[in-house]
């Protein structure tokens, strides 16, 4: 008797679930970025002048700004960020989310997004340099590798939260 009642209950709730429309998910309209961050195509980008190591930069992005080091996926994004960073009076290379965690010359973004853009300075082997920077000398358009313990400014990026508007 208990088995039959449970089966009916499960079937009832399954029916209800299937008849209930799924919630509509939308990006938050009119979201704002923190002060002094760049707002571009649904993302926020923050530049921080404090020179820190790569690991410290990533930790600060995550813990202090609920973000990650920036990753790039289009030429337009690279150019917009280059213009943004050039607006700060600094002449240092800048940490981005590019790294070679296995030290095997296979580079990834720290946020696990796809690696679909190429902007390396050259094709040379990256000896003992496993973290990526935007080069000041190229107006922040080209990447190069650095020793991860080097202290540099850094770039964070975040996306707005998805919110439920209706059910």
From TrEMBL:
The keyword Nucleotide-binding does not apply. Its main location: secreted. SMART domains: CLECT. It is found in: Secreted. Residues 1-26 form the signal peptide. Gene3D superfamilies: Mannose-Binding Protein A, subunit A (3.10.100.10). This is C-type lectin-like. It comes from Podarcis muralis (Wall lizard).
């Amino acid at each position: 008797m208990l088995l039959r009642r449970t089966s009916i209950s499960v079937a009832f709730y399954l029916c209800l679930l299937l008849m209930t429309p799924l919630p509509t998910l939308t990006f938050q309209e009119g979201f704002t970025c923190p002060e002094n961050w760049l707002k571009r195509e649904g993302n926020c980008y923050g530049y921080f002048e404090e020179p820190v190591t790569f690991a410290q930069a990533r930790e600060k992005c995550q813990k202090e700004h609920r973000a990650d080091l920036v990753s790039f996926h289009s030429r337009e994004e690279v150019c917009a960020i280059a213009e943004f960073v050039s607006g700060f009076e600094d002449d240092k290379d800048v940490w981005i989310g590019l790294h070679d965690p296995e030290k095997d010359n296979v580079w990834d973004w720290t946020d696990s997004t796809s690696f679909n853009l190429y902007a390396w300075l050259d094709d040379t082997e990256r000896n003992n340099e496993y973290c990526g920077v935007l080069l000041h000398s190229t107006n922040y358009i080209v990447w190069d590798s650095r020793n991860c313990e080097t202290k540099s400014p850094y770039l964070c990026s975040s996306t707005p939260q998805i919110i439920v508007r209706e059910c």
